[in-house]
Design a protein that fits this description.
Bound molecules: manganese (II) ion
Number of strands: 11
Order of helices and strands: EHEHEHHEEHEHEHHEEEEHH
Number of helices: 10
Distance between the termini: 74 Å
Shape: globular
Strand content: 15-25%
Strand order of the largest sheet: 3-2-1-4-7-6-9-8
Structural class: alpha/beta
């Protein structure tokens, strides 16, 4: 079987607010790259109906499988109503996929695929069990980890190999989840003792966490930012859903434009800059 047949890219959504809309936008990026091995897991009927009606590849997480994992549900999950149970479901579903022998690539619905990540991931999984994205901006949380390591591990994009080590790791995470306010705190506290400090922006390196071989992905590969840039493979935007949706459409448009449109956009931007400069000059002359 080929790597992509053995691998699932997935996200998780609920029907709160504009989450289903964001999930549909997320899927559009994958379609654009002709990636077929993805699925959106819906944790309620509302989000499932929304996506299903629009022909987006999705699956409803059944009540049985939700109750099956009740013991793992984080009792102390932050009472963030919007995000709700997405945090625990991303880990539960990873476990199910790994146990089916599938490598799991998890991405938040605000982590958009500008390019096909599979070739790079396939290469890294030859020597690693776990690939983690990082947060390097000054408000990265948990704060203790950022202070000690210079960055934090992000719960919004990770890859797990269908290896015994990968399965062990996800079981450990699910066992511990109830001790933490969310999955990002849980993951960071687990890796904290194994990671070394890196101040450099790219902060890509490999390390062993017990038996688990881990690679930290570069910010060039998975970028955590509020800039709607198209340079990275995965763009994980920050901020509220409305803003994420706007950034998604800007980036999507940029990715889809031809050379002529690009030229026109650049020309227009330069014109605007000139105009603004002229305005400022005039202002200064009037003042002085
Ligand atoms: Mn996110």
């Amino acid at each position: 079987m080929s790597f992509s047949e053995n691998t699932v890219i997935y996200s998780v959504t609920n029907g709160n607010g504009r989450y289903p809309e964001l999930a549909a936008a997320w899927a559009r990026f994958l379609d654009r790259n002709n990636i077929n091995n993805y699925i959106i897991y819906c944790i309620d009927k509302k989000s499932f109906d929304y996506l299903n009606e629009r022909g987006v590849r999705c699956e409803l997480v059944t009540k049985e499988s939700q109750t099956k994992y009740k013991p793992f549900k984080a009792q102390k999950l932050k009472e963030n109503e919007r995000y709700g149970l997405i945090a625990s479901h991303k880990l539960m579903i990873a476990k199910e996929l790994l146990e089916q022998g599938k490598n799991a690539i998890y991405a938040d619905t605000d982590a958009f695929f500008c390019r096909n990540p599979l070739p790079h991931i396939q290469e890294l999984l030859e020597t690693h069990d776990c690939l983690l994205s990082t947060v390097t901006h000054p408000s990265a949380y948990p704060r203790e980890t950022r202070r000690k390591k210079g960055f934090t591990v992000c719960g919004g994009f990770f890859v797990l190999k269908a290896s015994p080590h990968g399965i062990n790791f996800i079981n450990t995470m699910l066992d511990r989840l109830s001790n933490y306010s969310d999955e990002q705190c849980c993951i960071n506290s687990y890796f904290s003792e194994y990671m070394t400090h890196r101040k450099k922006k790219g902060c890509a390196y490999s390390f062993l966490a017990g038996d688990l071989s881990v690679n930290l992905l570069t910010q060039a590969f998975v970028r955590r930012t509020h800039h709607p840039t198209t340079k990275n493979c995965v763009l994980h935007v920050t901020g509220p859903i409305g803003k994420s949706l706007r950034r998604a459409s800007v980036v999507y448009r940029k990715l889809s434009e031809g050379p002529k449109q690009k030229q026109r956009r650049r020309r227009r931007r330069r014109q605007m800059q000139r105009q603004r400069r002229r305005q400022r000059r005039r202002q200064r002359q009037e003042e002085g």
